[in-house]
Amino acid sequence: MQDLAHHILDIAENSVRAHASLVVIRLQERPSEDLLRLEIIDNGEGMSEEMRRQVLSPFTTSRTERRVGLGLALLAQAAREAGGDCRVESTPFHGTRIVADFRLSHIDLKPIGDLGETMLVLAVGHSDTDFALEIERGGGLRRFDTQEIRASLGDAPLCSPTGLRVLRGHLGEVLGTRPTHPYGLKESPNAC
Q1: Is the pLDDT confidence value at 56 over 90?
Q2: What pTM did the predictor assign?
Q3: How many domains does the chain contain in total?
Q4: Which domain holds residue 100?
């Protein structure tokens, strides 16, 4: 994976498969500590202790349709390559918390990538799951939250033309740039 946004997408998709109704993604930049921390927290099914110990190893998966799982192993590798580390905390029926630390100044730190596109794909593609993105940078906190957006939309779904405009607007405020039309998501009456 070329950037952290792709890692986030992959791991958030795992959270959805674990029946999470809420996935919180936190990015914290701490220049004084030379640290970029990525946390992904869900309220899904969680993992057994045995699975949690193995999950950072390549080819470990809980899927039955495919016996290969590289998502967390690749994130852990990216963290280690950038002078950091990755850990997983999980309890059955209480969700999972993944923490990946990277050295901000490390030459092998992957770019963050297009977080707007990632969040838009997650929000529109998984209508039964809420997503929050929190970015802590320069002493400030910016937050994108689909629960708040759903409340402001009333009956309009996130995938409706109005929903897509509102999602893009909120992401633009949080990220400083509006996501475009990822994967063909267009503002048309049949977008849902």
Answers
A1: no
A2: 0.87
A3: 1
A4: 4-113
